[in-house]
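Entry — protein

Goal — fold tokens:
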Amino acid sequence: MNMNPVSSLPLPPGNLGLPFIGKNKIFRKNYQYSMKEIHQKYGSLYKTRILGKKFIYFQGYEAVKFVLTNENKYFAPCYIFKNSQRIFGQTDITWLAGQEHRDRQKLLTKTLKNKVLDNYIHTIHNLSNSYFLKWIKSDFVDLYFEINNYTLDLVLKLLLGIDSASESEIDNYLKEMRSGLNTIPLAFPWTKLGRGLKSKDKLFNQFEQIIVKRQKESDFGSDVLGILLTVQEEIDSKLTVREIAEQMVNLLSLGRKELSSALSSFLILTSEHLDVLKSLQIEQEKLDSSEPLSLAKLKKMVYLEQVIKEVLRLAPPVSGGLREVIQDCSFQGFRIPKGWNVTYQVSSVLEDPEIYKEPEIFNPERFNAANAEDKKKPLCYIPFGGGARECIGKEFAYLVIKIFISTLLDNCSWKFKENQDLTINKFPVARPANKIEVCFTNG
């Protein structure tokens, strides 16, 4: 007698053989297009095998919501890269689950609340201005390269008080660490994993020295590390030096990636809509220039917020998520077996025509008070992920994006070099498909 009704259900449609035979390169280069084709052909669920693991793709609003609302019940975090925990550590929030994840999330969220974010405004504004002045002096700048330097400088300044990080070896350490993620698990000095682990040791040692020194000071400081150390004392929840370092590396890696994605996507997408840029300029000109930049002033930039939301909808900095199935379950009549992996696609929600009218069109007005398309359903606007694992730095990211763009509009004009391909690749993170050069000028 079958006591488990789920086990009698069919698996989702798809192919468990070698995935996309002869199409591996095409699939990687045209991920967004390939996923739309699969969605049209198979519907919300599709099974396949990736890197030897059985996967079920979840697409569309209802399917993605099912994954996001069943964290710790049916799904738990997983990693597809062999060496992830060896390189980035086993205690960063990415790998934690259940109550341990909730406790860590609660602790880290306290370092990025509004009253804390207000302390960061001056630093963000000044660093943005310094970069604009540098860009104005050049004929053309490599957009993504320069924004990556900006976000590295900014994130490390706000995390650990490190100045001019882009002029250090930190970026090289991060590149070596990433290159060791999905490679043979042999840590000899000449292997990618070996080089990645060596760079990990150098980066973690640098961060740990800063943490130990700060712990001995009477004033912990007002950056994220300082707030974290203060909060730990208040709630008597101590992390080890290594655990703090792992959180800092995680926040650096994710925060920088998401900010670089959002800022470059903003400049690319708005360059194709001069009417939107004009409206943004008009809004900026209406603001009181004598009023210092603050959270209150930023809230008055209503149209800017709508434009940012539309940019993030069309080019979300988080493309999706990975989960392991920890308990047999079903969705829309299909069996989701324990031990399999699932992945969900953020764009399939943000471009769902039942939620967003004409989703392929760039239209910031969809987010005004009258339309409020992002409020139609729970979890229908998830550019930074959603549910229990929504990016804890979401509000921080919005703050940086708003200040960067507001400051840019106040100080610069910009023009893209002619005849460039402005395509944005959306996987694994939204970023320019090609090198893009931009000329910045005063005014």
Summary: Residues 10 and 122 are 57 Å apart (CA to CA). Residues 19-27 have pLDDT under 50 and may be disordered. The domain at 5-442 is CATH 1.10.630.10 (Cytochrome p450).
